[in-house]
């Protein structure tokens, strides 16, 4: 095998492992879902999957937006089924309900994190799942930024913002610094460009454009690591702001720049709280000779299975199409 073939094989293997981590336990037969921000590289493919593609503008506008972007092939951008940039997601979906939502490198762009998750839950069937791929700050151009706080998430939710706000724009633009993934994993220091007046003026002008003209400027509104994400969700769950339990929150795999999160829609506040406590524990440093909350894991598994069993026994289960199982990894 020559070098080119070996590289192609390695990339194919990496893609396969990533898709397994994202979609593990998701049975797409007889179910339907939404994919956000698919652009030219969708995760769920028609007609194999019954999926609708959601974006903030229609297909033509996306192709125009990315016409000069070297990382996007405008001709391969999927046809957008649902345009959602105002109002409720439920209204945009005409009241339809879905079994799953998939979003790769989307959540960090969402101005109102809490509101967005609430909108997703509103269109999911009971125990529906959300599958997320999220960039890890440590391995991308956000590495100089502080991880996101609950205060920022709460204020964004209070204001119900639909576009990146001035603080989000300024933090992104003033702290942006290129980061090579390989160098980051080898422990090499990243670039640390000196602040310039030119960059400041550009950032201020961009933020002013958003405020004065309502212009949409695409930035990373939120900054995470696996532990930071789990901690933020735990805090928001404690305040009753999150209607999802965590069924998986991976570490960032060596050599990659993102991590994977599986969520399950539920109204069980205790289950939500326990699941995020569990997620935090998976990423907190622990002495090598201590088990990683084995007892708690078993208890959480039992509660997740009990909720699913209760759902299966309910009237709504018998009259609706079968709901996908979200906790295959725990069985």
TrEMBL record:
Organism expressing this protein natively: Lichenicoccus roseus
Keyword field: Methyltransferase, Transferase
UniProt xrefs under Pfam families: Methyltransf_23 (PF13489)
Record field: transmembrane: none
Signal peptide: none
GO BP term, pick one: methylation
InterPro entries (alphabetical): SAM-dependent_MTases_sf
Keyword Methyltransferase attributed: yes
GO molecular function, one term: methyltransferase activity
Protein name: Class I SAM-dependent methyltransferase
């Amino acid at each position: 095998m020559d070098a080119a073939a070996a590289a192609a094989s390695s990339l194919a293997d990496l893609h396969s492992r990533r898709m397994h981590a994202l979609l593990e336990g998701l049975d797409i037969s007889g179910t339907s879902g939404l994919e956000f921000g698919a652009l030219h590289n969708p995760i769920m493919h028609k007609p194999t999957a019954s999926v609708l593609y959601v974006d903030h503008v229609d297909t033509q506008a996306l192709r125009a937006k990315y016409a000069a972007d070297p990382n996007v092939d405008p001709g391969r951008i999927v046809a957008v089924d649902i345009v959602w940039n105002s109002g409720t997601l439920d209204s945009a979906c005409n009241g339809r309900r879905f079994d799953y939502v998939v979003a790769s490198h989307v959540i960090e762009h969402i101005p109102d994190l809490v509101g967005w998750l609430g909108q997703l839950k509103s269109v999911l069937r009971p125990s529906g799942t959300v599958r997320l791929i999220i960039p890890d700050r440590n391995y991308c151009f956000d590495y100089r930024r502080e991880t996101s706080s609950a205060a920022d998430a709460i204020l964004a939710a209070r204001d119900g913002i639909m576009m990146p706000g001035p603080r989000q724009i300024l933090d992104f633009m003033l702290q942006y610094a290129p980061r090579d993934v390989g160098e980051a994993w080898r422990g090499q220091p990243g670039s640390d460009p000196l602040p310039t007046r030119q960059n400041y003026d550009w950032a201020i002008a961009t933020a002013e454009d958003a405020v004065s003209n309502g212009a949409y400027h695409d930035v990373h509104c939120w900054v995470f690591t696996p532990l930071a994400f789990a901690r933020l969700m735990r805090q928001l769950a404690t305040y009753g702001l999150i209607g999802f339990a965590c069924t998986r929150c991976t570490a960032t795999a060596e050599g990659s720049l993102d991590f994977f999160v599986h969520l399950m829609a539920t109204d069980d506040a205790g289950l939500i709280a326990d699941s995020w406590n569990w997620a935090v524990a998976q990423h907190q440093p622990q002495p090598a000779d201590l088990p990683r909350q084995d007892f708690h894991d078993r208890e959480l598994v039992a509660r997740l299975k009990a909720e699913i069993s209760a759902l299966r026994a309910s009237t709504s289960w018998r009259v609706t199409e079968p709901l996908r199982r979200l906790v295959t990894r725990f069985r």
